[in-house]
Amino acid sequence: MNKKQAGIIVTLVALIVCMGLLAMRLNNPLYVQGDGEKSTVSMKTNDNKKNDTTSNYFVESKMVRDNKNAQTLQNLKSVMEDKNISQQQRDKTAEKYAVLAMAVNYQNNIELNLQAKGYTDVVCTLNENKATVIVKAKEKLTDKQLKEIQSVVMNETKIKEVEVIAK
């Protein structure tokens, strides 16, 4: 194992530990008061449980997507740096790397733009010619909201096929 591989493993382990701590923190039914003592949250209603489940869905979806993208980018980078691979194959891999890196950037920009427009939780995934946007909504989205979401995606990515899902 070389230094790069060791560094990657240490980084991934650190990310896993951080995500575990974050998950524990988000799922903890306790909160800390100003003086540092803990007390339990008084009676959660079914609506709060539903909102927590929905929020967890968005957090988990983003984590899974981001981890998958990071792993794919790392694999592509390893192929590009491999001296035993032909230059033509490295060029193709570099092209795939650039496309995925741009998709990650577009996904983040779309999510931020939609959050700025008032959508509290948003997850966006991009494929070659299709975008899927999942938004948190208490009610069915109106035509105006659907067009607004599609407009944000089209302005950012030029992708015309946009699937919007209200969760």
Folded structure, characterized:
A hairpin with a 5-residue loop joins strand 1 (30-32) and strand 2. The chain is of the alpha+beta class and 167 residues long. Helix 2 (46-81) runs antiparallel to helix 3 and helix 3 (87-116) runs antiparallel to helix 4 (143-157). The protein is built from four helices and five strands; from the N terminus they run αββααββαβ. It starts with a helix and ends with a strand. Residues 29-49 have low confidence and may be disordered. The chain is flat, with a radius of gyration of 20 Å. It is 63% helix and 13% strand. The strands form two sheets. It has a three-stranded mixed sheet. Strands 1-2 form a two-stranded antiparallel sheet.
Task: Tell me briefly what this model is.
The protein is of the alpha+beta class and 167 residues long. It contains four helices and five strands, in the order H-E-E-H-H-E-E-H-E.
What is the string of SSEs from the N terminus onward? HEEHHEEHE
Work out the helix count.
4
Radius of gyration, CA atoms, in whole angstroms: 20 Å
Helical fraction equals 55-70%
Question: Strand sequence of the main sheet, in spatial order?
Answer: 3-4-5
What is the overall pLDDT average? 80
**Strand content bin:** 5-15%
- SS class: alpha+beta
Globally, the shape reads flat
State the separation between the terminal residues, measured CA to CA.
Answer: 44 Å
